[in-house]
Each structure stands twice: as C-alpha cells, then as structure tokens.
Design goal:
By secondary structure, this protein is mostly helical. It has a domain at about 10-35. The protein has two helices and no strands. The protein starts with 9 loop residues before the first helix and ends in a 20-residue tail after the last helix. The mean pLDDT is about 80.
Length: about 55
C-alpha cells in the first residue's frame, strides 16, 4: 500500500527561521540511490492538487 504525504515548511520557516540543508531534488535522488532505484521521467498525475495559491 502506498501513502502520499505532502509537507509544507512555511510555518517552520516563518516562526523558526528553518532553512533546508539540501533541496528536495537532492533528497529524493539520495533516497532513490540508497534504495537502488533509478529515476524515471516525470508523468502528469491526474489526482495532483496544487496547494492554495501555488501552481
């Protein structure tokens, strides 16, 4: 069973001054490498919903 999780760091950035150490792209590449996976071409996802005010 797959679970999709979306996190928003806006509050942590505003209230705590949080700044990511690596980009999401670097983090995903590292995770895939650790799991022995190869990246695949991006495919549009019909169920994808943009967060309010972002595109």
């Amino acid at each position: 069973m797959a679970v999709e999780v979306t996190l928003n760091t806006a509050r942590a950035r505003k209230e705590l001054g949080y700044r990511p150490v690596i980009s999401i792209e670097e983090g995903l590449a590292e995770l895939m490498s650790m799991r022995g996976l190869q990246p695949r071409a991006a495919e549009p996802h019909s169920d994808f919903v943009h967060a309010a005010g972002t595109q």
